[in-house]
Amino acid sequence: MNMNLYGHNGQWLLVDCGMTFNEPLSPEDSKLHELVTANPEFIVERNDQLAGLVITHAHEDHIGAVAALWPKLQCPVYGSKFTLEVLRNKLRGKLEGKVPLQEIESNKPVSIGNFQVEWLPVTHSVPESHAILLRTDAGTVLHTADWKIDPDPVIGAPFNADQFKELGNENISAMVCDSTNSTRPGHSESEGDCYEGLLKYVEQAKGKVVVSCFGSNIARLITLGRIANRTGRYMAVMGRSMHTMVRSAKRAGIWPKDVKLTETNHLAYLPPEEVLAVATGSQGEPRTALNRLANDRFYDFDIKEGDTVIFSSMVIPGNELAVQRMVDQLKRKKIEVIEAAEVDELIHASGHPCADEVAELYRWVKPALAVPVHGEREHLLANASIARRSGVPRQLTGKNGDLFVLNDPAVRINQVKTGRIAITQD
């Protein structure tokens, strides 16, 4: 549930405004809340100093709380075409037409208050992901957000290493860097490399095939659509969030013409060997399409003995029990279940960089300071260690609520009241 504040010369810039799901408000709290975000009290009390809200990409942990919190923030919102299409779906109703949305172009600087902001394209598991370059008269910061070095992202251009190598000549004051996979050695797999593994399992399936993946991974949906074309199957998507993402991709002009989708209610009239459904619910969420299929509660489609379910996803920590419960239910129905973590073929690729990629980016950008973010403390410390070995002179790690001084490196502990709040969305 990312929410980052950068302050300079009496103004603040908010980078991302995300939410998480089914979480407590504190470690001591046993009650789970459906939607949770970071407590925005600090910036709400200073919203006259808030120059704008910058969105790096369209994942829920970066964009999900905008609709709930914007009435308190009351500032312009900046993002790419696809990102804003996803956001517009969330603003329908009370906020439709009221939130000033500013569409940005990659690599084109925008002045927002005391900040000059530039969106640098990166590869990740959702289209039009960007790192943010923040230039001020006190220094320049590279905020990586979520990224990986992918030579074949399926949709969009490959990772442009040259652009980041050029930053090495700009005296970058600080690089605020994704640490999610910093404890994993090597290099992340390419999204394009998922094709062959998924093709193998779809080709060998005798009955209906249902693939569950993250709905925002448009590249994975495109890969599956092309596999459907090759194997003589018709593909449909199931689940509200997946329909929203596909619709946003089409409106943003990034959905390819060669990938055709079938209406879900048409699948029931097809022979099983001609069906490929892509469903939400890879994390075992109770109201999602795959869970309803597993429990025979999907209105116009069902799966049974002889069919195949493929989990083209990782299990997010904390969801293990829910996923296992759903897998067990599918197996009781004598459905073949294929999980990414249990097979040798690549059928899922992470959207985050492993240790070698993090090291490469540090060596290219050559920041004076590294600030690891995203992940638990072990991930932050691993990222800091990589930065040190890659020649970055200073590394600062801290906790939520710490104030990082970037042009005169220091951490001021517990400067800002933080915490979690539950939110509701219409």
From TrEMBL:
Keywords tagged on the record: Exonuclease, Hydrolase, Metal-binding, Nuclease, RNA-binding, Zinc
Xref: InterPro entries: Metallo-B-lactamas (IPR001279), RibonucZ/Hydroxyglut_hydro (IPR036866), RMMBL (IPR011108), RNase_J_2 (IPR042173), RNase_J_b_CASP (IPR055132)
Lineage: superkingdom: Bacteria
GO molecular function term, any single one: exonuclease activity
Pfam families xref list: Lactamase_B (PF00753), RMMBL (PF07521), RNase_J_b_CASP (PF22505)
Record-annotated membrane-spanning stretches: none
CDD domains registered for this protein in UniProt: RNaseJ_MBL-fold
Domain Metallo-beta-lactamase: 1-187
Protein name stated in the entry: Ribonuclease J
Origin species: Reinekea thalattae
Lineage, highest ranks first: Bacteria, Pseudomonadati, Pseudomonadota, Gammaproteobacteria, Oceanospirillales
